Amino acid sequence: AQSVSQHNHHVILSEAASLELGCNYSYGGTVNLFWYVQYPGQHLQLLLKYFSGDPLVKGIKGFEAEFIKSKFSFNLRKPSVQWSDTAEYFCRGSQGNLIFGKGTKLSVKP
Amino acid sequence: DVKVTQSSRYLVKRTGEKVFLECVQDMDHENMFWYRQDPGLGLRLIYFSYDVKMKEKGDIPEGYSVSREKKERFSLILESASTNQTSMYLCASTPLVGTEPYNEQFFGPGTRLTVL
User: Fold this and answer.
1) CA nearest A23: which of A101, A106, A107, A86?
2) Tens digits of per-residue pLDDT, B40-53?
3) How far is B17 from chain A (nearest CA, A)?
4) Which CATH architecture has domain A4-109?
């Protein structure tokens, strides 16, 4: 079955630590991938997206993600997190019914 | 600035009541979606619509129905609310770009529904 998997349910980091959140997809054909973020009490908003071309995608607020086709992965990275990055992060694919991963909660300690 | 609005931020209903959740977008988007968001389960698609009066079942349509009489408005209906429908409900819309409907989604703020 088509799916998008996020391996980490809850990640706790200290400020200035580097971040990498995993996302794997399991479908073929055209691959469009997205990362969304939901800050506490706010609506989901787009961080970045990959449609084609350069597999390294830069998004808002210093986030980036790399599409690695051979690994079916689209991991989200940030070199140095801030307390304000505390949020829930969702990976989304574009096959079938717009599959979302189950989300990863990121807590950043000041 | 794109905008998706939902009729209520918080709603409390009793078991067996009929519940209407309304969503309106002002971006002239063709596609609209209803999700529920539960801790540890992420977002699960209930229904979506790609045109007025058109609807498609998502992954968890049981116990829900939808209505899209106008392009900007997409309603989610719980015919007889049950306690297991207590959840956060999110509406989203996306434009149809060429023939590709699966584009960036714009989300509303959500409605937290509690069924007692």
Assistant:
1) A101
2) 888 999 999 988 99
3) 27
4) Sandwich (2.60)
